[in-house]
Amino acid sequence: MRYSIATVCLSGTLRQKIEAIAKAGFQGIEIFENDLITCDASINDIRLMIQDHGLEIVTYQPFRDFEGLPEPHRSKAFERAERKFDLMEQLGTDLLMVCSSVHPHALGGIQRAADDFHALGERAKAHHMRVAFEALAWGRFVYDYRDSWEIVRRANHEAVGLCLDTFHIFSRGVDLQAILNIPGDKIFLVQVADAPRLSMDHLSWSRHYRCFPGQGELPLDQFMNNLHATGYNGALSLEIFNDQFRSGSPENTARDGYRSLVYVNRASESITQQQGALLPSIKPPTEIQFIEFAVNASEKQELTHLLAQLGFSHAATHRKKAVEVWRQGAINMVMNLEPESFAQRYHDRHGVSVCAFGLSCSNVSALAQRAKQLGYKLSYGNPHTDTHGIPAVEGSIGSYLYLVDDSIQPNHWEREFIAQYHEPHAFLQAIDHVALSMSYEEMLHSSLLYRSLFGMTPTPSVSVSDPGGLVKSQVMQTPDKAVAFTLNSSQAAQTVSNYIASRYAGGGVNHIALRTTDIFAVAKRLESLHCASMEVTANYYDDLAARFQLSEALLAQLQHFHILYDEDEQGVFFQLFTKLFAGRFCFEIVQRNGYQGFGTPNAQMRVTMQAKELASLNA
């Protein structure tokens, strides 16, 4: 298939869009009518500009309000079409995308529309052109691709074909099986878009919330499998209306768009078998093996003091660098003070922060190849100073995701570090999840990265009430839930999420959740060491008493130690948060007794108390 993108997806002038599209690796481009109209270059110059960048115009679009019109509107529609054919000839494209009518004078009837399209096909053929008919989800009479296909079938003209658009199909909840009955050569164009699942009118949903495949919640793999079964081998294109895309970097957006097409076209095993050497199969990461902090000397001293209170001890020191490992159970916290390192460059830009995560992976070579095909660059560090040889991919907030292969012996801990004595007991056993604060654009970038490269899947997005506004939250996790990142973004400037992101001069970690089997033992330890935890209101515990059947003794313990509580069908959940470190991130202690979620009902309490804490820090 030829990968294409509509100019409406990107910000900038038409020239900037063309340059970004070509640089990202696309073969085709859809010229959106408004981009052409507002460009001050001549049609011939635009055509040459596109050709010089090695691109093919796969379609000119959209042509609106055509079918089912009474006179004199019908004759005027054909006159408009003739003008568009003349324009397309100058541009050097042969396909006009026609979307179903929303005209107030339009008349219904499958046969009436089919007759109109047969007549349009005759005119298109005379110009050596073709037309592709798309069913808009908000079309007046035609809003189902099965109806648009029946119109194309009845039109029975070689120059008339179908345009399939995933957003219009999924937003209407239309069954996908009928796609299998459509001959591939009668599909002239396919546009793929993802989106979050929302309950709102189709037009608003379409105009503001579409996103690239892999960034939303629509089952696109099923659509692609059915599409491939038709034998279709034409343009696979992106038509994304998204407020963030149209205000962000056209180069970054185009790169994500291209890798999203690679991902969605090659994600399923059946497609891989059909098309040969495509995306290699991978297994998701099995754990977050380490978290690396970029710190200076004083920050390191304060942070390791907090870690010691949580039960961590100094476990290893790098043989050559100013790097330490603090460990508890299977949790490794790396303190990096090495001058001229990636961590210190990260610190210069963001201050004290998490600069890297180590993900345990069983198939690093396949992951590296997959990253290359998706357009993600791998870094192997400075060859003069970094001997660990662990590849890393850069995340959306600039931090590294290291692909750690522990099948290589001796492992990097033994090769690179000198072991120190550390406390053998472990109050905390593993990293449960990490919550990140970021812009919405970075959130979309992150979800595509975790999904396309690591095989992680999203939970349904939720909105969390913050004193400063709403925060959108979504968890990306491996199928076995061993690795999970919670992505948080808000359009409201005064939320905790945005405040933390601003402190980092970009996105950053909000909290690191560490798992225990006895949260009360951890809470008692913290209390004995005078390590303050996040305060919780008395009203919260009154509400717990009303919602759940908890004993008075348990309620008293929860309130005394500021522990949050929740239940689901699988079990119960306990949460305890430390105070924010440097006004940026905190540690969360969690105990899961079968519970599968992430404490969403308690999120408003967390952000409210964190907002209060931040206000006191800034007072």
Strand content: 15-25%
CATH superfamily of the largest domain: Divalent-metal-dependent TIM barrel enzymes
Helical element count?
21
In round numbers, the mean pLDDT is 92
Task: Specify the biggest β-sheet.
Answer: 9 strands, mixed
Helix content: 25-40%
Overall CATH class of the largest domain: Alpha Beta
Taken together, the total number of domains comes to 3
Would you identify the regions where 5 or more consecutive residues have pLDDT less than 50? Answer: 269-277
Rg, Å, rounded: 28 Å
Shape: elongated
**N- and C-termini, Cα separation:** 58 Å
How many β strands by DSSP? 26
CATH topology of the largest domain: TIM Barrel
- Class by helix and strand content? alpha/beta
Name given to the CATH architecture of the largest domain: Alpha-Beta Barrel
Give the SSE layout.
Blueprint: E1 2-6, H1 14-24, E2 28-32, H2 33-37, H3 43-52, E3 56-63, H4 73-91, E4 95-99, H5 110-126, E5 130-134, H6 145-155, E6 160-165, H7 166-171, E7 187-192, H8 202-209, H9 220-229, E8 235-238, H10 250-266, H11 269-275, E9 287-294, H12 297-309, E10 313-318, E11 323-328, E12 331-336, H13 342-350, E13 353-360, H14 364-374, E14 378-379, E15 392-394, E16 400-404, H15 412-416, E17 417-419, E18 430-437, H16 440-454, E19 457-458, E20 462-466, E21 469-477, E22 484-489, H17 496-503, E23 508-515, H18 519-528, H19 538-547, H20 552-561, E24 564-568, E25 571-577, E26 586-593, H21 603-617
Parallel strand pairs: 1-2, 1-8, 2-3, 3-4, 4-5, 5-6, 6-7, 7-8, 9-12, 13-16, 18-22, 23-26
Antiparallel strand pairs: 9-13, 10-11, 10-17, 11-12, 14-15, 15-16, 18-23, 19-21, 20-21, 21-22, 24-25, 25-26
